Amino acid sequence: MQLPLSLPPSSISSSYNFPNNHNNNNYYSSPSYNESSYNNESSYNETFNNRSSINCIKSCFRFPFLIIIKFFQKLKTTPLKRFRRIYLNRSPTCAFRIIWILAFLVGEILVFHYAMIKCAWPDNIQWDKSLAKPYRIAVIADPQIIDDYSYGRTGILQKISEIYPDIYMKKNWKNMQNIFNPDAIIFLGDLMDGGREWDDNKWELELIRYRKLFKPQKSEIPIFNLAGNHDIGFGDKIISEANKRFQKVFGKTSYNVTLGNHSIIALDTLKLSGSDELLKKEGNKLIEQMANDSSNLPRILLSHVPLYRPPDTYCGPLRQNNRYINQGHGYQYQNLIEEPLTNFILDNIKPQLILSGDDHDYCEIKHEDIIEISVNSFSFAMGVKKPGFLLLTLYNPLLNDNTMNNPKYNNNNNNNNNNNNNNNINTFAFQQCLLPNQIRIYILYIILYITTLLCILSHEFVKIRRTTELLPVWYKYQQKANLILFTWKYWKSVGKAIFDILEIALLMYFICWIWF
């Protein structure tokens, strides 16, 4: 019998009896083989196979851990110096330059552009564009440009309070015109924060600043303005001089204009809330005129201060701060128009839509079937995280010369007349557009600045420490008491790295600044 190749010598000697002369012939021809030796052989083969399987499974489980162990063993020796050398030789200055360029590109340009393209002109699938072209209006409330009156600050802090809200509004103003190209623009009052408080010279300077901020890119676009309580005052405390100069520059504070076959009624509810009949004359005359007007044009009422509503009237899910606008008053302001005046206005004007401002946050309610929208402030300095504006689309093919001979117009003429007489709100559509959260952007800049500073400090510390370790032993003992953080060499190196990052970051910020 031929011996199994897997059997060790010890097993062979215990299972077979070898003769004294160990020649090959005797070895194979005369073995002393019995039943017990066969059983030992089978047992060994089974044990060996089991151990092989277990070892194979263990090796599979240990393989990834062995790789990790080997990796860390490498790190403990020469690779550590190599990685340290790579880290020290490759300064983070270049990386942070790129990071700051991208940060300003995103935070000063792309975020603002994205906020605009995320919004779109509202539309209605029932509108037949072949009968009439929709008329598109951008509605802006409470830009309220910051001045010396706003916070009582002085010096550079006051300049910062003025400059950054101005930059914010100028960006959004230009983006809004470029992207949406409105047919008309309406401002719902509070053009300046301290307009009513200044003398004529100061007011003229603020007016120049306001016109630079909100300069129309197309001269043919009509712009309509309401007076706000920050412009002329409120009620019985209307400031006569402020009222006169506002009307001299911006025109009447109560007027009616036709846009997109809609009657836009700008009503000075500030003066109507007072007791001076002379100041109220213009507003009362407009109300009487609209009450006697027999035209079928849908009416949209503009008021700086929101109309009265019951306490705790829900403003809808788009409001950012508290849920309601409740009545309240103070120096030169009142949260809501009084209830009797509100009822008088609604009964005589009978608008299909009301647009108001003053509250700085979005609010959408109903006076029975009449929708009133309070539009967000356009400035981030007015207490809302995300400022905004309103896109308003008007569609009314009636009285349009281009549609009089259109067969579709003749077929639907009676239906359209009935819809207008029933105050159908389908002649308009509106969409709130939110602007970027500027405070959050500034916070992210601060976090990035702190991260940059910590990385530069740690990098320069390790770099100088390594340089010191390479010096002669006697020098290291001499410098042992001198902490690296208190050496001129350390701070000079840190300053150079920060300056290298700062120069490119400021250059990029300046480019973003003059971009608008």
TrEMBL record:
Keyword check for Acetylation: no
Main localisation: membrane
Pfam families named among the record's database cross-references: Metallophos (PF00149)
Topological category with respect to the lipid bilayer: Multi-pass membrane protein
Record InterPro entries: Calcineurin-like_PHP (IPR004843), Metallo-depent_PP-like (IPR029052), PGAP5/Cdc1/Ted1 (IPR033308)
Gene Ontology BP term (one): GPI anchor biosynthetic process
SUPFAM superfamilies: Metallo-dependent phosphatases (SSF56300)
GO molecular function, one term: hydrolase activity
UniProt keyword Transmembrane helix, yes or no: yes
UniProt KW keywords: Membrane, Transmembrane, Transmembrane helix
Ranges of residues in domain Calcineurin-like phosphoesterase: 136-362
GO terms under cellular component: endoplasmic reticulum; membrane
Subcellular locations according to the entry: Membrane
Record field: transmembrane: 94-116, 439-457, 497-515
Record-given protein name: Calcineurin-like phosphoesterase domain-containing protein
